[in-house]
Specification:
The protein has 291 residues and is α/β, with parallel strands linked by helices. Helix content is 42%, strand content 16%. It contains twelve helices and nine strands. It has a seven-stranded mixed beta sheet, with helices on both faces. The chain has a two-stranded antiparallel ribbon with strand order 1-2. The longest helix has 15 residues. The chain binds S-adenosylmethionine.
Length: 291
């Protein structure tokens, strides 16, 4: 960048091109989010103030942020937050950046809870990470004054701390538990068990985009040799932790994984599972009810 006057419009165009060349698939959006942060403005205000020049210190701070983005660091980690289901969540490299696809999992859980045939009982979010799913459900439960508690578990103490912090900041009551899948909840049963577990095949991890592979926690991604280290346990144990008529809703990586998951669920006493592609795929949801 030269010493010329850098207006908001000019710097956004320059940064879009710079980040596109650096390989970002969302260069313009990245530029707007990072500039809004530096200038303490909303994105919309940037567009309304196209001719405003940046001060020297703003330019210097912005440059540092775009250099981080150019090295593939996710914008959410640079900003330290990510919006999910209308909630502003704090995130750091100990937790997966919540994805828009995962909002579909919340949609399914909430749609089920709104049905007359939904059984009484609480909601469990396994592998909660930042707490995204649990908090989105807890927010809806609170707004609709439903008589349901939300419980969430994660194996990572660091993720557990992030989720707990998000819950306190947002004033949403979730019971946060630390441990391996269902272990921390013993034999408690739920009306809904929802999960976005690690499901990437270990051999595929090196092929992931650098943003994901080099920055997000591998504990959140790596599903083992066949992607089923956690999915397999989930399938085997879900029925024991659902009340009759309860729903299991799980995110996974492909239709093929979905087909294997529905078979595993059938063997474990939960036949009739459905595989739904999300946002055009490859991500899918598996939905299955306990008879
Ligand atoms: C794909 S991330 C999902 C995070 C969050 N639910 C979301 O959708 O953004 C998976 C999470 O599972 C956790 N995890 C991995 N193995 C686990 C296990 N065996 N038991 C519980 N949590 C586990 C990781 O620490 C990580 O936070």
């Amino acid at each position: 960048m030269t010493e010329e006057v850098w207006t908001i419009q000019r710097i956004l165009l320059w940064t879009r091109d710079y980040l596109t060349k650096a390989g970002s698939p969302s260069a313009r959006l990245d530029a707007e989010l990072l500039l809004a942060e530096v200038m303490k403005l909303r994105r919309l205000d940037l567009l309304l103030r196209f001719d405003q020049p940046l001060q020297k210190d703003e330019l210097a701070r912005f440059k540092r942020l775009i250099q981080r983005r150019a090295k593939h660091e996710p914008v959410a980690y640079i900003l330290g937050r990510k919006e999910f289901y209308g909630l502003d969540l704090l995130v750091n490299p100990n937790v997966l950046v919540p994805r828009p696809e995962t909002e579909s999992l919340v949609d399914e859980a909430l749609a089920f809870l709104g049905k007359p045939e939904a059984p009484a009982g609480d909601v469990l979010d396994l592998c909660t990470g930042s707490g995204a799913i649990a908090l989105a459900v807890a927010d809806a439960v609170k707004k609709k004054a439903m008589e349901r508690q939300v419980v969430a578990t994660d194996l990572s103490p660091e993720a557990h701390a992030v989720a707990q912090g998000n819950g306190e900041r947002l004033g949403l009551p979730v019971q946060w538990l630390l441990g391996n899948l269902f272990a921390p909840i013993a034999d408690r049963k739920f009306a809904v068990v929802v999960s976005n577990p690690p499901y990437v095949l270990s051999a595929r991890i090196p092929e992931l985009d650098a943003d994901v592979r080099d920055f997000e926690p591998h504990l959140a991604l790596d599903g083992g040799p066949d992607g089923f280290d956690v999915l397999g346990l989930l399938a085997a144990q879900a029925a024991d932790h659902l009340v009759p008529g309860g729903l299991l809703a799980v995110e996974l990586g492909s239709r093929a994984q979905g087909a294997v998951m529905t078979q595993a669920l059938e063997k474990a006493g939960m036949p009739g599972g459905r595989v739904l592609p999300v946002m055009g795929g490859p991500t899918c949801l598996v939905l299955a009810r306990r008879p």
